[in-house]
Amino acid sequence: MTRPLAIGAALLGLLGACAPETTTPDLAYTVTVQSAMDGNALSTDCVDSAPFFDQTYSYELYFEGSTVEVKIDGESFGSGTRSGCDLVYESAVWLEERASGDLRWQLTGEAVYEGAAGGCSLDEGVDWEGDEVIEITESEDEDIPVGCTYDMVTEGTLKAG
After folding, report:
1. Segments forming the whole domain that contains residue 89
2. Of 122, 121, 149, residue with least CA distance to 136
3. 3-state DSSP assignment of residue 22
4. Model-level pTM greater than 0.85?
């Protein structure tokens, strides 16, 4: 009778060994990403008009020396390098499936960020400030040409680290 229990315990141990490893980010921020504005218009060289973008995400940073893996909402997004309070990062090329034609885009970003110790030149109550540029690398949408860019601004607060 103890044999099935022993086998079950052994299988449970093996399954636990195969479970994905979870790691805690070195720093995590709640970051709001918004369309950058140029006067009353969106800052883009793509289209005459587009909807204003305003979304909040969790940006998680994982450090390996000066190299940084960037995850957004727990999903691997891109990588970059850090130096002091400055971070420069780039995403992989992402596919966006749309009714008007699929797009592929890539994001590059720069940010000033700080951890709980502070010490960086940021406004009171802000732990992350930056800019991102989204560039269209492939387009099946006739209204959005390859090479067009959308400028974004980012601002956030530290939530862990």
Report:
1. 22-160
2. 149
3. coil
4. no
Cβ atoms of 93 and 137 closer than 8 Å: yes
Counted domains in the chain? 1
With CA atoms as reference, report the closest residue to 84 among 110, 107, 47, 46: 110
Q: What is the full DSSP assignment across 29-66? A: EEEEEEE-EETTEESBSS-S--PPPEEEEEEEEEEETT
CATH number at residue 72: 2.40.160
Any idea what DSSP says for residue 79?
A: E
The answer as to whether 2 is a domain residue is: no
16 found inside a domain: no
Question: pLDDT tens digit string along 117-156?
Answer: 888 989 889 999 999 999 999 999 998 899 999 999 999 9
What pairs with residue 42 in β-bridges?
A: 37
The answer to whether position 3 is within a domain reads no
- CA 55, CA 43: separation in Å to the nearest integer? 17
